[in-house]
Fold these 3 entries.
Entry 1:
Amino acid sequence: MAGERTITLEVQRFHPEADEAPYLQPYTIPFSEGTSVLEGLQHIKDRLDGSLTFRWSCRMAVCGSCGCMIDGEPALACRAFLRDYAPGPVRVAPLDHLPIRRDLVVDQSDFLAKLERARTYLIPADERTPADGAYRQTPEEMADYYDYAQCINCLLCYAACPQYGWDQAFTGPAVLALVQRYDLDSRDAGKDARRAVVNADTGVWGCTLVGYCSEVCPKGVDPARAINQRKPASVADYLLGWLRPSGGEGTP
Amino acid sequence: MSRPRTYRPGMRGWWQRHPAYRRYLLREGTSLFLGGYALWLVAGLLCLAAGEAAYGQWRALQGTPWLFGLHLAALMAACYHAVTWLRLLPLTVPVIRLGGRRPSDRALIRGSWGVSVALSAALWLYLGGGWP
């Protein structure tokens, strides 16, 4: 089409069976006012190079699949628009700090294992059945955790956390924010079960409040706040642990 | 099942990757100036304990240009540190309710500045002999 605007995407490629290390491959594609970076990648895969590998699903910042580094910033490819990077070139790379599986696909297994270990689900105080009726919660009680419940597990915060980059043992922003999400929920009674994860050196104390995680979160979760507002309680656990004869479970 | 080989990029030159990292280093770096200034005050105390001559020498050093520059740098670092510290303070406050409501970040930051200014003024007056 005459007069069509084009932009060059420098996409980081890596195929483990063939490549020693990642490299950049340029693709020039047409774009319009409403073309997202994800649609740009889809154009490449459909029309130019079917071997390009990336994750995506919902195309509307809900599923958290298409996170990648766009011009050095962690972002959802569906929520970033090529018009904002014109005239380009724009560099698209896999999320920082995570092992690269293939092209833009990172290995999420470490995150998923941590999510499971932290028991980020509702642990009620009593066994309940639907016959017992619904839980009741005031709007104020819900407001305490609501922001943290918006996490879509997209891992942008891990790509924004240098502490995680240095030490993968650090539980990391999203999992710790989700721990706080359930600990603050009035329906939950699982705080003790999550205490060891929170209080460990690799828990909230692994965070030095760089704060970039909260800047890149596409859902406004603010993991830096979730982690650091938990530190006073962790200190209290530690001090009380000294007073208890058992030594206290989960002290650092 | 064996996992396919993955590639993990290192952290070399990490601070060059984003301004947020450099702001973090600057914020944390200001503590070095604060620590240095505290050590300098301790040195002054030790000189005071050692006797009048030593203390006089320590005081005489304060007027030299390079030490004046270091003091100015420490003051600027302390101001920057205070601003960033109080800006981050709301993130470290547990979920609390005052009068049934959670205080806003703005209220917490302004309240902290108020307390900080009041304490500094009281100290200033006390050292100046104007109070109590």
Entry 2:
Amino acid sequence: MLEVRHLTKIYDDGTVALRDVNFIVPDGEFLVIIGLSGSGKSTLLRCINRLIDPTEGEIIWDGVDLAKLGGDDLRMARRKIGMVFQHFNLVRRSSVITNVLAGRLGYTSSRQSLLGRFSAEDNAKAQHALERLGIEDQAHKRADELSGGQQQRVGVARALMQEPKMILADEPVASLDPVLAHSLMQQLEILNKEDKITILCSLHYLDLVQRYATSVFGLRDGEIVYRGTREEIRAMNDEEFKEIYGQEAERVGGGLQGDLLTANGGGA
Amino acid sequence: MRLSHTPTSSEELKPSLVPPFLAATLSLIIPGLGQILARTIRRGLLLLFSFATITGLLVWRFIETARRDTGLINIVKKGLSLEPALVILSILVIVFYIWNVVDAYAIANRSGSNPAGLLFLVIIIFFMLGWQIGQIDLVALITQADDAGPALTSVLWPWERSIEYPKDIVTTTAQIQIPCTETPPAPSGALEDAPYLLADPTCGTLTEFEGAPGSTVTLTGHNFIPNTRANIWWKDPIGNEFRQRQGGEYINITPDENGAFKIDIVLPYRLVPANIRDVTTIWEIQIRQVASIGDWQFSTELKLAIEKIIETIFIGMMATFFGILLALPVSFFAARNLMSASPITLGIYFITRTILNIIRSIEPLIWAIIFVVIVGLGPFAGIMALTIHSIAALGKLYSESIESIDPGPIEAIQATGANWLQVVVYAVIPQIIPPFVSFTIYRWDINIRMSTIIGFVGGGGIGFLLSQWIRLMDYKAAGIAVWFIAITVAILDFVSAEVRQRFV
């Protein structure tokens, strides 16, 4: 269970990115955070795995306050939290398999990783992760030779290598077209359902939110302005969505059910 | 330079401070002053500045041309008569001066005056001054090009100089008995295929000191190398050798086209030790001729050039090597994104950048001169000069590529729980290797090019030979050096392009 209490982040230039944010995420949840760009979604996700240090507040995960961790303890905690990024953040010149294996760095000694050596077990895991995401035949290509959708799958595979209990996904589909967006969200849903990985995902599109979220909250100017359950979200119409989200809310396009067929077919 | 007349809002609103006639008069006294007071300050200052510069330069050209004359009128007369360009320049400056006055009037009158003509005039004047100062002589370029022909041809195709035939001095001897006895030595016999020398008679008396001249001997030679000069030497009984003189001059002989010659010589004066002075001794007379022996071989120049081109490549290589080694740590200090954490590190960043910029602005040739003073002539000075310059250049390029790395992968690797070292190895290094490799090869390229000329100032390598051969006007040898440089640079160009393509 993840519990965030009184989380505040003020940047050095005085920008208040998060203002007294409180929420609880039970294990196995698919939580979607909605909000305009600049509303604090990215900051919130990065505060949880401490890529950004919060100014104030507690982030309690499995009884440990992540906000107070440092050094090796923080690294141990990060190992169990995967992260997927809007721009994939792959090492573009390295091979796909190297990018995926990088997910095991937290479990590998400095000496081994310096030599680029990973255990046979890790290599098998990487192979398995690639198979699960349907990109096993791309393993030895350079990451930047892959299409956007494939690159994001590599990003997910890297997160998966950490054997995470939770995945933070920061706008994972914002750089993808609608079909690929659905396909990737389905992958995350599978991880959520089959592997029981808690997912915190920031999203833009109403239909994706309605289709995949088990719980939602909306951020505006660093404050939580909306909390909703799966049912409440499903019942919501565009006008209500725009009210929390602002006028820029949009759908991926097409109907909710109708899209899934194409999404299933157009994986790569 | 912008003499734009397009009035800015303030110029348009405010009227001139002085009436047109006064403005013109002021510009007559000091060019540009009228325009300044007419509130077109920038235009006035530019006119003032251009006029002062042009006049100063023109005066200097007059003094230079009429160097030996004194007095204003003499100098002007001499200058105008010697250099037609100065006549045109003087006229143009006067036109410029008058135009400036007219312009001042028009500006103050707010009737508008197009500055394009003035600007054009200033450019023309500066161009003509440049022609004068640069001593541009297109006639020489065309008429004297012919004289350079032989030298340039030698440089273009110097390869006959790459081989040579070994030469040696061939000595042919005959014996002379001094003084004559009843049994003078028998003359050597005729030979079939080797040069031989006959003396007649084979004995005689030496010239006495301030006394009677010695006896005359007729020398006949055969089978010598035709038409090639030969010298006459003596070897006295105690083994000392000296050249035959006649009337104070050394004498030379040149065999005819059959390799034969005939010459009368007077036995020389020679001071010999007392113990052999009054006894009969055998003296040897020698004909020495330079002859080719054996087959062709590679010339000394070619061997030297090969030696030095190898040295050159290694100078470039070592300089690049040391440059990389030292530029790597320096580049981290010069990368703003790494050094902006605190004011102290930011201070180090600025100091590093400043030092790098200063070093880079000094040409490697000048560094070479400095290092020749420190470590002496030779390749080491060249290596040091190129190293210093490489550190500065690579330091800047490396640090800029560090500054431009994508922070995304870094945060992604951090998020996996990787430690600092792992982040560097997996997220930073893969990103900086391609630009580093690219810049390094580029620098290697530059260093080899530079090392070919660093020898001109004593920094070792082939440039030293080249400068020497050019000064000796040995254009064939210089041509060999030029060819080696060209071949090396071409190969290097190709290799570096290939390597860069592989890595980047």
Entry 3:
Amino acid sequence: MDKNTNVLIVDDYKTMLRIIRNLLKQLEFDNVEEASDGQEALAKLRAGQFGLVISDWNMQPMTGLDLLKEVRADARLKDTPFIMITAESKTENVVAAKAAGVSNYIVKPFNAETLRGKIEKVLTHA
Amino acid sequence: MPDGQAGGDRIEAAVRAVLGSLSGDMTVTEAALLGELEALGREVARAKSEIAALRVDDINASHIPTATDELDAVVSHTATATNEILDCCEVLEGLQSRLAGEDAEALGGAVTRIYEACSFQDITGQRIGKVVSALKSIERRVAAVTQSFGRGESAPLAEQEEPAAPRTEGEELANGPQLPGAGTSQAEIDRLLASFD
């Protein structure tokens, strides 16, 4: 697992961005950028080089699922590992995310070990 | 009938119009109809006075705005408190480098647990957002009922609902956190994802 991977975290709750950033720091990921919705995230992804996206679902003006679809439809971004971290825990949400190409799915509230395990899994298979 | 006439008044006017037309000798059927219409008129008048006694205007003028303001304050205060806790955690993390061995490990583990616990603020905020949305829906419906009895100036319910904008799949499926036991656990999600591989 490459700890130098550039990670983009996307959430409309600033507190949640801070928590995920600090947990990533504990996992020794220091190259972390933030976005507060799908549109801002897409702009940053298109402008930069990211090796991992960790996104919430429920955001405006673009949801995490819609961001995921945009990423998978973009020729340059389509292979970027994408982890959804969300309170949306219905089976239909997981199925829709999988159909859209999500790399892994974490339901809130989550613990650091779950986050570490999912990141390791998606970066190993990237 | 004037367009702006309230629903309750329209019913009363219709009853009076029908009663006015039933003059002179009446058949048994017409007499029965007259009795039913008079009873209907009394029911409408009683319903109007009961609604007035309920002071439904207070619901929209005071109760619901106060409730939503209180809930907004809960979200704001928990966010402030959570960020103060995170400030403290970051100070503790800075001190961790001065420790060694088990002490450093214990401090790091405790800080991680605090970070994990602080995610309650996100879930709480989303749950309160759902409650506020429900309150606003009730507010619109109360306004419509008040209007139909000529006590408010708001438009009928059908006109108050915002036009439905096209929604993406992501928006359609955004329901927020489920109640305990109603959602899918992380272990079940992992099994579901594995079943696609």
